[in-house]
Amino acid sequence: MTRKVSRRMQELRTKVEDRLYEPLEALQLLRETATAKFPESAEAHIRLGIDPKYTDQQLRTTVALPKGTGQEVRVAVVARGEKVSEASDAGADISGSEELIDEIQKGMMDFDILIATPDMMPKVAKLGRLLGPRGLMPSPKGGTVTFDLAQAIEEFKAGKLEFRADRTGIVHVMFGKARFSAEDLLINLKALQETIDRNRPSGAKGRYWRSVFVAATMGPAIPVDTAALRDFKLADIA
């Protein structure tokens, strides 16, 4: 069944030329095409030359966006004893122990990030089937399994994101709001690119970067010149 394209989207697509855009130019166009009636996010869709079915070609890590995400991040913490109040004092929106695990199991999902202390992970493990598909399962690689709760909470509220390549080797990441300036979006996108390069899986062979597209939540995909993005120096923005 062919999905009907709205007149609005048809008109926006005419603004996107059949070529690769310089990074800053692409982000300026992203802002122009964010015409929905709600505050749209800026999204990156990056195809990598990896096959995540092999363990040495999987990508799962975090990025600290220098300009933040533009949205309030709700952090929940599963801990034990004094660590529960420590999490609350550090700014966690929700904190608890076994009772919080029970609430989540019953369907409570009022959070964007779930952090757990290592000693609670055996109990949190039973939430895997529920949290895994939503990308909310705590993991050491993602920085969400830690005893240093204050630092983790601060980082995630300031704009740290966890991301992973999907089963087809594509990374989908929200890297800001369309209302950000093109320059601020580029600073965040550059941080994302550098993080992906820095965490290249050991089993990745051949051409690592295949394609990069950026888009507003309800906007058309805009192809970015990958080489230009990787060669770009933040000093060039000034």
Report on this structure:
- The longest helix is centred in the C-terminal third of the chain and has 17 residues, at 182-198.
- The model has no long low-confidence stretch (mean pLDDT 92).
- Helices cover 31% and strands 20% of the residues.
- The strands form three sheets. It has a four-stranded antiparallel sheet. The chain has a three-stranded parallel sheet with strand order 4-3-5, with helices on both faces.
- With 238 residues, the chain is of the alpha/beta class.
What order do the helices and strands come in, and which of them pair?
Layout: H1 7-13, H2 23-32, E1 41-48, E2 60-64, E3 75-78, H3 82-89, E4 94-96, H4 98-105, E5 113-116, H5 121-124, H6 128-131, H7 149-158, E6 160-164, E7 170-177, H8 182-198, E8 209-216, E9 222-224, H9 226-231
Parallel strand pairs: 3-4, 3-5
Antiparallel strand pairs: 1-7, 1-8, 2-6, 8-9
Helix pairs in contact: 2-8
In short:
By secondary structure, this protein is of the alpha/beta class.
State the strand order across the main sheet. Answer: 7-1-8-9
In angstroms, what is the radius of gyration? 19 Å
How many strand segments? 9
The CA-CA distance between the termini, in Å, is 48 Å
Helix content: 25-40%
Q: What order do the helices and strands follow?
A: HHEEEHEHEHHHEEHEEH
The major beta sheet can be summarized as: 4 strands, antiparallel
Average of the residue pLDDT scores: 92
User: Poorly predicted ranges (pLDDT <50, ≥5 residues)?
Assistant: none
> Beta-strand level of the residues, as a percent range?
15-25%
Helices, by number, come to 9
Shape: globular
Structural class: alpha/beta
Protein name: Large ribosomal subunit protein uL1
InterPro entries: Ribosom_uL1_bac-type, Ribosomal_uL1, Ribosomal_uL1-like, Ribosomal_uL1/biogenesis, Ribosomal_uL1_3-a/b-sand, Ribosomal_uL1_CS
Pfam families: Ribosomal_L1
Subunit structure: Part of the 50S ribosomal subunit.
